[in-house]
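Aim 2 progress update. The chain analyzed this quarter is reproduced below.
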Amino acid sequence: MKFSVVVPNYNNSKYLRRCLNSILGQTYQNFELIIVDDMSTDNSREILEKYSGTYPKIKLIELETKRLNGGARNEGILKATGDYIICLDSDDYFKDDKVFEDIKEALGDNPDVLFLGYDTYFSENSVIPYIPEHKNIKEAIMHCVCAIWTKVIKTEILKQVPFPEGTLFEDRIQHYKVLLKCNSFKNLDRSVILWDRSTPVSTSRLNNYNSYEFNYASELYRFIPNVKDMELRKYFKDELINYTNHCKEMVDNYDRT
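Predicted structure tokens:
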């Protein structure tokens, strides 16, 4: 079983080596590492070119037009040749060197998707563990964290569902679309990723989310008519109403500034 590990990067030079070393140091070595640099202006490309020149497993893609995380991931997924795709953000990392071994064992009966456990790290005194316990795909759609790195997905499925480009919130709609294509799943019963919420990259994305919520509401509006399950359709409608109300509040605030 071969994994394709896709890592988008933009100006994450401070954390990049930590991420790459956690992948390259895995004891299970049947994988390719596809790194997509989205026009970094720090010394990320220098680091990436050195790593790619040292490790044959690395495929380095250096974008010449800005595509944000969705576009960078799409480019990496397009080049993937593994049976399953594992995604990781370049400021996060795998917690130990047995992660791929555990993933391979869990994928023994070839489920469409494997949900991963992770730790949310805010500081040394604030680390919140999460272990998935989904009972069915519908529950996972409504309650799972939508981030692409919380799931290992069959390559043939993921290639059918590209991310929206040129926006943040890129993995919410994609999360729904992917899981609606999945017929089987498993939960990995341990935490394998550290999601680092203390980095400037992470906090700056949070600060910029408001300007992209309009895009997400529009994507959700177009997506709902394709949902056949009535319970899910109601869930998505309620979510759309909440985001639409929030967008209205943002517009109303223009008059107060």
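Residues 202-207 have pLDDT under 50 and may be disordered. The CA atoms of residues 88 and 149 lie 5 Å apart. These observations will guide the mutagenesis experiments scheduled for the next reporting period.
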